[in-house]
Specification:
The chain is α/β, with parallel strands linked by helices. The chain has 14 helices and eleven strands. The strands form four sheets. A five-stranded parallel beta sheet has the order 2-5-8-1-9. Helix 12 packs across helix 13.
Length: about 325
């Protein structure tokens, strides 16, 4: 299977992404070593990291390094040193010089995941590195050339972040020379069942379990659920089913999805747009409910709530802003 073939699915939405990525790679495969920056946009769990890795492995720099950087996971105070490196004595504890992640990706690809969460000061430095292809380490007096293909990803629309002055407009235009949008699972007509079968078979094989199959009610429940966590959520559900379902024929109850026992009928063709809009709203409401549950369980401690949700703290804060929860006060506790 080709690297791009790992983006499983037969829907028009995912096929369009594979086709666009393939045309990009063919166009630049024989045109020297420089590749345009690529911005991958898509909701959490749609497979942005998988697509970035596939672009690298299918592209002209497959023999070079692939450096994966989660911008939300590195503490803000360490980001600049991690990305661009530092010289000996640049700060307390810098006993010897160290190359940054951009230099580690020389002649290969650097994947900047959740780039929207970079602090503004670093956004300006990142823009300079991309435009000049030169990195200056912390404490250094001169720059060093670096040749890395920049692939960035964002879970939220960067154009909205630009409009809200949370992201530099010049950096957005520099990163979005080529933009690939990964569709959410609810827009991939017919792919949910195919992916569920794939993940279920893979989980059974990985754990050495007897093969399981999806019953009719389970398939209807899979189609009716809005999948706010997208492909990642689906993969996790199928892994849980492989481990815990007692029967080889999986029913709706075994999925553990809200409302899974009730089959959701497919909307008529004339109402597809309305159904998708409703699915978007349902996904947002489901995400809001999960965040509120985590906040309530941790008495609105953001760090503990983020850990409970498996998210970086900055990502949780951003989603709270998007869902209108940022200004909401923590519930008062009664005096004893």
């Amino acid at each position: 299977m080709s690297p791009l073939g790992q983006l499983l699915g037969q829907s028009e939405a995912i096929a369009a992404v594979r086709d666009q990525a393939a045309r990009l790679l063919v166009r630049y495969a024989t045109r020297g070593t420089r590749l345009p920056p690529v911005l991958i946009q898509g909701e959490t769990g749609t497979g942005k990291g998988l697509l970035a890795s596939a672009l690298h492995r299918a592209g002209p720099r497959a023999s070079g390094p692939f450096v994966d950087v989660n911008c939300a996971a590195i503490p803000e105070t360490l980001l600049e040193a991690e990305l661009f490196g530092f010289e000996r004595g640049a700060f307390t504890g810098a006993r010897q010089a160290k190359a940054g992640l951009f230099q580690a990706a020389h002649r290969g690809t650097i994947f900047l995941d959740e780039v929207a969460l970079l602090p503004e000061a670093l956004q300006a430095k990142l823009l300079k590195v991309i435009e000049e292809r030169v990195v200056r380490r912390l404490g250094a007096t001169r720059g060093e050339p670096v040749d890395a293909w920049v692939v960035a990803a964002a879970s939220d629309d960067l154009r909205r972040a630009v409009a809200a002055r949370r992201f530099r407009e010049d950096l957005y235009h520099r990163l979005a020379v080529v933009t690939l949008r990964l569709p959410p699972l609810r827009e991939r007509d017919g792919d949910v069942e195919r992916l569920a079968e794939h993940f279920l078979a893979r989980a059974c094989e990985d754990y050495g379990l007897a093969r399981k199959s999806l019953g009719r009610a389970a398939r209807a429940a899979l189609r009716g659920y809005p999948w706010p966590g997208n492909v990642r959520e689906l993969a996790n559900v199928m892994e849980r089913v492989a481990l815990l379902a007692e029967s080889d024929l999986v029913d709706a109850d075994s999925l553990g999805l809200p409302g899974a026992a009730a089959a959701v009928p497919r909307p008529p063709p004339g109402s597809i747009a309305e159904a998708r809009r409703a699915a978007v709203e349902a996904a947002a409401e489901a995400e809001r409910a999960r965040i509120l549950e985590a906040l309530a369980a941790t008495t609105w401690n953001l760090s503990r709530a983020a850990a409970r949700l498996g998210l970086p703290r900055n990502t949780l804060r951003y989603r709270m802003e998007r869902l209108g929860l940022a200004g909401r006060p923590a519930p008062e506790t009664g005096r004893v």
